[in-house]
Amino acid sequence: MIRVLLVDDQALIRGGFRALLDAEDDIAVVGEAADGREGVALARAHLPDVALVDVQMPEMDGIEATRRIAADPGLADVHVVILTNYGFDEYVFDALRAGATGFLVKDVEPADLLHAVRVAARGDALLAPAITRRLIASFMTHPPRPGPVADGAELTGREREVVALVARGLSNNEIADRLVISPLTAKTHVSRALAKLGLRDRVQLVVFAYETGLVAPGG
Length: 219
Description:
Blueprint: E1 2-7, H1 11-22, E2 27-33, H2 36-46, E3 50-54, H3 62-71, E4 79-84, H4 92-98, E5 102-105, H5 110-121, H6 129-141, H7 157-167, H8 172-179, H9 183-197, H10 202-211
Parallel strand pairs: 1-2, 1-3, 3-4, 4-5
Domain Response regulatory: 3-121
GO molecular function: DNA binding
Domain HTH luxR-type: 148-213
């Protein structure tokens, strides 16, 4: 059973999502919070697999809530999916940097919401190659504000190649074809890069690649 926590200050949004999620045999909503502070507390109390967290809330916003969840060793298995009204708004990059697995627009189709929850519960990033390309396009016109990041010096030359290709929106299979290696080897390089950089998933690899200049927007 996939356990989901809803964190949004709009009761109508929480109610709609709960009704949709609870109707599924493999998903159960274990808690609701109206602000980020309560959301972090409920995450610690219920240990959900997925937390759907709104960006803008009173008391504590979704970015800070995400940061606290990601930094808590006891919540390592909680995957945060950010909810936004505007798609690629100014908060998305900060949320991804804070440790979010991905993001959804609040008017998402029901089937896409259910798919997203199941993907996040597996620990996979909610950025398929097509979505990654949209993120890249957004970098070109709205680069994220600078923040402290690793410089990537610990990566091997091949790992840097792989990270750059991830940032270009390529899947593991596409990376394997480009570098003439097996998909398993490509996946291993991605995993090693994540471990060396202390990052959670491919989403943060994309942010890392652009923030450090490993890949230049439009290049």
